Amino acid sequence: MQPFNVVLLQCDPNVAESMAASLSESFPSIHATQSMDKLQSSIAKHHPAVVIVDLEMISIPDVERLCHDFSDVKVICTHRLADEEMWTQALSAGAVDVCGAHDAGGVANSAVRSALIASAKGV
């Protein structure tokens, strides 16, 4: 089994750094990006198991497009506010989970769970 990679798109560099630190315990390769274009390029280049995106950086249609264009990648969304309507929309768009942006441990747990489920399904 090949190691799992993660690609991050977060608006707050401190949040991105905290997430990367939490994720590094389970994922050998974490790539941070600063825009939707760079995110898509990084996904194509690094073939991550999981992508973690900040809903302040991309729209719900962008989430849907990511899930469609990269169907083998599990998308986890984050946001600094607990907005149930937005989170429901993200899940309906294809995200596998939505977590608070400052909950690095929760994001890491979700990423590990999503990667393991994808691996078990042979995705």
In short:
This protein is of the alpha/beta class and 123 residues long. The protein has five helices and five strands; from the N terminus they run βαβαβαβαβα. The protein has a five-stranded parallel beta sheet with strand order 2-1-3-4-5, with helices on both faces.
Radius of gyration (CA) equals 13 Å
CATH class: Alpha Beta
Report the strand count: 5
Put simply, the count of helices is 5
Largest sheet: 5 strands, parallel
The CATH architecture assignment turns out to be 3-Layer(aba) Sandwich
What pattern of helices and strands is seen along the backbone?
EHEHEHEHEH
The dominant shape is: globular
Strand order of the largest sheet: 2-1-3-4-5
Query: How would you state the average pLDDT, rounded?
Result: 90
Helix content: 40-55%
| Low-confidence blocks of residues | none
Q: In terms of structural class, how would the helical and strand content be classed? A: alpha/beta
The CATH topology comes to Rossmann fold
Tell me what the structure shows:
The protein has 123 residues and is α/β, with parallel strands linked by helices. The protein has one domain (5-121): 3-Layer(aba) Sandwich (Rossmann fold), CATH 3.40.50. The protein is built from 5 helices and 5 strands; from the N terminus they run E-H-E-H-E-H-E-H-E-H. The protein has helices spanning 13-23, 36-46, 60-69, 84-92, 104-121; strands at 5-9, 29-33, 50-54, 74-79, 97-100. A 5-stranded parallel β-sheet has the order 2-1-3-4-5, with helices on both faces. Strand 4 (74-79), helix 4 and strand 5 (97-100) form a beta-alpha-beta unit. Helix 1 crosses helix 5.
